[in-house]
Amino acid sequence: MGDPLYAGGVGLTVVLVTLLKVLVTFVLLLVATMFMVWFERKIVADMQHRIGPNRAGPWGLLQTLADGTKLFFKEDLLPDRADRIVFRLAPVLAVVPAFLAFAIVPIGGNFAEGGTVSMFGRETFLQLADPPVGVLFFLAMSGIGVYGVMLAGWSSGSKYPLLGGVRATAQIVSYEAALGLSLASVILVNGTLSTHQIVAEQAGAGFGGIIPNWNLVVTGVVPAIIFLIAGTAELNRPPFDLVEAEQELVGGFNTEYSSIRFALFFLAEFMNTVTMSALVVTLFLGGPSGPVWGPEPVRTWFFPIFWFLLKLVVFLFVFVWFRGTLPRLRYDQLMDLGWKALIPLALGWFLLLGAVRVARNEGWNLVVTFGAITVVVVVAVTLLNLSLRAAQRQRLADAEVNA
Q1: In this structure, what are the phi and psi dihedrals at residue 122, rounded to the nearest 5 degrees?
Q2: Before 239, cis peptide (omega within 30)?
Q3: 125 SS3 class
Q4: Phi/psi of residue 285, each to 5°?
Q5: What is the rounded distance in angstroms from the CA atom of residue 71 to the CA atom of residue 265?
Q6: Backbone CA torsion sign across 11, 16, 17, 19
Q7: What are the Cα distances from residue 43, in Å, to 31, 120, 182, 263, 308?
Q8: Are 182 and 223 within 8 A, CB to CB?
Q9: Three-state DSSP class for residue 235
Q10: Is 244 exposed, middle or buried (0-12, 13-18, 19+ CB in 10 A)?
Q11: Among 23, 46, 127, 188, which residue carries the largest CB count within 10 Å?
């Protein structure tokens, strides 16, 4: 099922509604990003018993706008050894994927009644686009986003930005696999790649009319935790901000950038944070679905958007909480967590959900099925631990020989 806006062909009204949705989505994301910067600075300041922004506007709300204006008018520097075209292109490649990924997020609509809203006499989804492969589209955009960081480090003509770019590449490759496997569990239980359909599957009374039918519950919490951790690493945010570790890399991949191009990288980081939080809400917490009541406009517009924004703010706070409390990981810890913990756990949990689904469809004895699954899990964990210990012993032996 696609957006009903395009069901009757493309006319002037359809084009105008589409352009309006593009404009609103872009402005909403920019404003959300601006307030996210202020929100993070204020929350971290409170955690550290500081005041935070308090000069530009009431409670410092306009501080981000003031900083952006200052950066826009600063001198733009171009290093002598830089690749001019790639150096200028890299910030754009960092920003654009964040906006495109946000385009598939449903931000409103009463999903108990189809999830559509009425705009200028036409029924449509309150999201910019609903491609049938929406989840794959998100994975593609998250993979493309690393090119901005990688090319920025390579094109600067300096060794420190290059090291930051190389770290970013290794980090994204490591955590993209865990991110994809956690999404595979969502696709398995919902049977669709469309974000709109995934939210529709989560709408309703849920278990016993009390527990929501969210994928957070249906998939058993573990994929949501893996997605959150891997998403934090994808964003290069603390405690995974190894690509811009100031103690080692001066300033990381963006050391040689200034003016508006530096601001674009800053914008991309916080825009990606908003986008990733919105996707967590969409994929695991039912998106805009929630209790609604009142007349038609209130049920389809106010309450769904209210629930979506409330859930979004919760996860934005979680990302700020991570930044204010967790120390930065060492690089070996970063790689170990991705390859030795998250990927095996995500793959094992996906196989577990698949086995349970097959058992229910085939009418197998669930007690025997869970017993067999438990034996397989114990054997797999034991073999993984033995292999990791053997590898560690080999590394120690090689170190002694080299010494």
Answers
A1: -120, 140
A2: yes
A3: strand
A4: -120, 20
A5: 12
A6: positive
A7: 18, 40, 29, 21, 21
A8: yes
A9: coil
A10: buried
A11: 127
Q: What is the CA radius of gyration of the chain?
A: 23
Element at 68 (helix H, strand E): helix 63-72
pLDDT one digit per residue (tens) for the chain, 403 residues:
577 888 777 778 888 888 999 998 888 888 888 899 999 999 999 998 898 888 888 888 888 888 888 888 888 888 888 888 999 899 988 888 888 999 999 998 888 777 888 888 888 888 988 889 999 999 888 888 888 888 888 898 888 888 878 888 788 888 888 999 999 999 999 999 999 999 988 887 666 667 788 999 889 899 999 999 999 988 888 888 877 766 665 667 888 888 888 888 888 888 999 999 999 999 999 889 888 887 878 888 888 899 999 999 999 999 999 988 988 888 888 888 888 889 988 988 898 888 888 888 888 887 888 788 888 888 888 888 888 888 888 888 888 887 6
Looking up tokens 């603390």 gives: 238
Using CA atoms, how far apart are residues 324 and 321, in angstroms rounded to an integer? 5
Listed residue (122, 124, 119) closest to 106, CA to CA: 124
As a whole number of angstroms, the distance between CA 337 and CA 346 comes to 12
Q: Are 244 and 254 in contact (CB under 8 A)?
A: yes
Dihedral of CA 300/303/306/312: which sign?
Answer: negative
Residue 334: Cβ-neighbour burial (10 angstroms; 0-12, 13-18, 19+): buried
Q: Are 269 and 320 in contact (CB under 8 A)?
A: no
Work out the end-to-end distance of the chain between its first and last CA atoms, rounded to an integer number of angstroms: 64
Q: What are the helix (H) ranges across 285-330?
A: 296-297, 303-325
SS3 breakdown of the chain: % helix, strand, coil, rounded to 5? Answer: 70, 0, 25
CB of 281 within 8 A of CB of 308? Answer: yes
Six-digit token string for 361: 């469809």
Looking at residue 188, its amino acid is L
Amino acid identity at 282: T
Dump strand ranges (E) for 26-88. Answer: none
Instruction: Say how far apart CA 175 and CA 257 lie, in whole Å.
Output: 27
* Residues 401, 341, 180, 358, Cα dihedral to 10°: 120
Beta carbons of 105 and 78 less than 8 angstroms apart: no
Domain ranges in the chain are 72-357, 365-403
Q: Which of 242, 258, 78 is nearest to 170 (CA)?
A: 242
